[in-house]
What we know:
Helices cover 54% and strands 8% of the residues. By secondary structure, the protein is mainly α. The chain folds into 3 domains: 5-66; 97-253, Up-down Bundle (Glutathione S-transferase Yfyf (Class Pi), Chain A, domain 2); 260-371, no CATH class. α5 packs antiparallel against α7 (129-149) and α12 crosses α15. The two termini are 32 Å apart. Bound molecules: glutathione.
Amino acid sequence: MPGSLYAAKTRAYLRKQHIIFDEIPVGDPAFRQVMKTVGRFIMPVIEMADGTIVQDNVDIIDHVEASGLAILSAYPATPVQRIISMIFELFGGEGLLRPAMHYRWNFDDQNLGFLRRDFVAALAPGADEERGDAVFANASGLMRKAGSAFGVTPETFHAVEASYARFLGLFNAHLQTVPYLLGGQPTVGDYGLIGPLYAHLARDPAPASLMKATAREVWRWTERMNAPEPALDGFRDRGEDLIADDRIPETLLPLLGFIAEDWLPELAAHTAFANQWLAENPDIPAGTNGLPNPGGRMIGFAPFSWRGHEISTAVMPYRFWMLQRIQDAFAAITPEAQARVRIILDDAGLGDMLSLRTNRRVERRNHLEVWA
Ligand SMILES: N[C@@H](CCC(=O)N[C@@H](CS)C(=O)NCC(=O)O)C(=O)O
């Protein structure tokens, strides 16, 4: 779906690799077959020329990189940049859901006509008026529910807007000095961020105007991320490489601080909830998700305090899997590089990213998250 958060990540990545692909809407009959293989309704899914099917953005990127088809690896070659980029990937995919949902679903006057046509075109291409209405009512009803499961309720609207304005300001300031997160080319962190920042926040009418009016550099970055060319604009003379010597630009440090303040409490609450849940469910067989539905993605709701509000949000083991990847990548680098990462994260208040963990590891098998 053009409006899908996670499809935006894969799309940007494939474009930057100069890979030509056909984008097939989920309403196409071919997708039903794909759903049988991946075990649930979820996008994006890629089908390679040899018929291999891959679901999940991280697996898709890793699969393309392992196939030798990437011309611009998403993973920085140097250790500190790699870990920092992976943190932005996790935050981009999972930490900006509140503004994404709020600005899509709570501005009906401006958004609804667009969303209706956009959703029906992807979910039920060619549907008549009546069927289109039914399809949109169902899909939008589910997504509005998802919004509250991510903590967007009338009580938090104002805080969501203030938090997003702060994020936009910091990211805009960063992009005034560098075209991508870490220099002259995108890395996994950019691909993580493009999901919410393009699909919802740069594309739906209300947040698109907000972004254009208040954060032109972020808007331009969303265009840059969707272009196969580097689109370096005025940054051209600095070249297409990542910043030298494994350095992290100064302007990223306040953004890391933002993640610590805005999102780390949620990750900590979710980890604590999951450990309690695992303790209460000690007999979950390895290789299963412990839920009645093997495709189910959430194990419950964790309460925590967010910007002065007590909220409760859906706990999804997928996040722990992504967090583990960061911790595994950290464990694999030299002690000297680890020390450099620690200084950056501790200064930002993000040190806990390296230690928060679930008592059972999450794995992905047959396209699904399961407990190890
Ligand atoms: N971790 C997955 C997340 C994919 C995902 O949640 N996709 C959404 C659309 S943006 C979806 O298919 N939702 C359907 C549903 O949950 O029913 C990935 O990165 O590919």
